[in-house]
Amino acid sequence: MDPNASPSLFDMQASETADAQAAKKAPEAETKRRATAQEMAEKQREISVSEFFTKNRHLLGFDSPLKGLLTAVKEAVDNSLDACEEAGILPEIAVEITETGADRFRIAVEDNGPGIVAEQVGKVFGKLLYGSKFHKLSQTRGQQGIGISAAVMYGQLTTGKPARIVSKTGKKSQAHEFFLTVDTARNRPDVHGEKVIEWDKDHGTRVEIEMEAKYQKGLRSVDMYLKQTAIANPHLTLHYQDPTFGKEGGSERVTYARSTKALPPETVEIKPHPHGVELGVLIAMLKETSCRSLSGFLQEEFSRVGPKVAEEICDTAKVSSKAYPTRIAREEASALHDAIQKTKISSPPTNCISPIGEELVLSGLKKEIEADFYVASTRPAAVYRGNPFLIEVGIAYGKPGGVGLELSEEGRITKKKTVIATEDLVGNADEPIRVLRLANRVPLLYQQSACAVTKSVIATNWKAYGLQQPKGALPIGPCAVMVHIASVWVPFTSESKEAIANYPEIQKEIRLGLQDCGRKLAAYIRKGKRLQAEFQKRSYIEKYIPHIGIALQEILDLSDKERDSTTGTLEDVLNKSRKF
Predict the structure, then answer these.
(1) pLDDT digits 0-9 by tens, 74-105
(2) pLDDT value at residue 106
(3) CB distance 131 to 144 below 8 Å
(4) pLDDT at position 236, please?
(5) Which of 20, 106, 140, 479 has its CA 20 to 30 A from that of 283?
């Protein structure tokens, strides 16, 4: 058969018949591949919380070996600090990181806190979303009951080894040792061993987790996290031993000593504020309350609501104040919610938050950051979504190193001084400033660009305060800016608690705090520029005074003694003519 010949009519008809048959079979085959509703129903099952976070561990901050090490240390230290403060104990915490193999490290965090009763150890360290802080409206570092159990889970996923926990609740109590993992399918602890051991501490907890990790120094390292923790918690004594300890050329054990023996003020748990409650939550509260009247419900379940305010809310909503709360219909609850928003109610109390304080912010900055100028400011408490919060700002300016000016007791310039540069949180003069973000005394090291703090710093006009600032970027200069938010519920953007959400109320308070510190910084920078200009002029004059003395000696035929006397007189006149 000729391959170049045209297809016959018979061949064309046969081809069309085959295509038609294939087209008829295609829907049938496609239908067979699809599942029925019954088959899909059989595949559906409940997802455990721990099983979900096993597959989505990046949401908790365990998305890389480098970040996983920092997150695990952070969660353990935060829990230790919360426990010590709640028990009224001055915290002393030891952090040890030991290299156990290629890309494997064991972290150990030991505290002198109140310890954990043996019956609760498994649930605290082996069950996600288990804790006492989620429903508690008072300032705490932890919020969700996920952190430390997620660290245990990450350790078992990457190394297969259980975590070791030692806890002792009192001097006369026995110390209990546990080895446990997380049963991710059922979200419950799986205890592999428990026994009573000898432990020379009076009380406290020790957590050891081995995990796949990576250690390195830098701005987002464990070292920097602990340094900033020491700044934000001046009542803390912190001992730190990094993986290079004990090795040739390795670092020494570092101790951050406390600068005050006063614990932060004890926070008081408050009830929710009416302006921060959404309609669905209000309906649920009405169904669950034990109050027998609507007026009593408003007064007992919310803060800042008295008899007069409760009566005003009921009148505005046109609902009887004596109505039984559990019988309130959805339409009445909606009217009640609208009436709450329209009623003027005092801001919630602020004894539920515990700020660092201006003096301690300054002492923390001076203790851990070498700089030439320090300033701090604490804003009055404000409210977002019914939650009270408070913003604190601190600035450390001036890179130690290079040449500066030395002043006498009278304030006169005496000579230049040379200081040795050190590696610190303050960057160089040609680099962007360092932003130290803290929430409830906890440093935030990742997701800086997505945080309300960074956006507020960028939105501030730093040129008015003597710093260079590219458009839409951080200012340039040897400066570290610390911003701390203290709140009963910090609005983090994710479960990993690395960035603060952009609420307008929070951004406004941050900007006001930055502007307050910025004005004082501008006065210091202007004074420094005046002193530098004056010193430069004075150096020129001092350089030529000896030559003027020699010229006068030649013109007036002065003796050497008279020449020196004249030169001294000129220097005295120069000093007296200086203006400050």
Answers:
(1) 999 999 998 999 899 999 999 999 999 888 99
(2) 95
(3) yes
(4) 92
(5) 140
Query: Which is nearest to 125 in space by CA: 205, 65, 219, 204?
Result: 205
Q: Which of 36-50, 234-248, 348-362 has the lowest mean pLDDT?
A: 36-50
pLDDT given at position 252: 82
Task: Tell me if 320 sits within 8 A of 314, measured CB to CB.
Answer: yes
Q: What are phi and psi of 78, to 5 degrees?
A: -60, -45
Task: Give residue for tokens 């009519």.
Answer: 9
DSSP string, 542-566: HHHHHHHHHHHHHHHT--HHHHHHH
Three-state secondary structure of 327-375? HCCHHHHHHHHHHHHHCCCCCCCCCCCCCCCHHHHHHHHHHHCCCCEEE
Q: Count each helix (H run) and each strand (E run) in the chain, helices first.
A: 15, 16
- Sheet strands (E) in 373-468: 373-378, 382-384, 387-397, 402-407, 413-419, 434-439, 442-444
| Residue 375 in this model has a pLDDT that exceeds 90 | yes
Share of the chain above pLDDT 90, in %: 42
Q: Distance (Å, rounded) from C-alpha 490 to C-alpha 141?
A: 9
- Alpha-carbon Rg for the chain, nearest whole angstrom, is 34
> What pLDDT sits at residue 63?
83
Distance from CA of residue 496 to its chain's centroid? 10
- Please give the order of strands across the beta sheet that includes 204-212: 188-197, 175-183, 163-168, 204-212, 104-111, 92-101, 237-241, 254-256
Contact 476, 469 (CB under 8 A): yes
CB 364 within 8 A of CB 234: yes
What count of other Cβ atoms lies within 10 Å of the Cβ of residue 397?
25
CA distance 579 to 576: 8
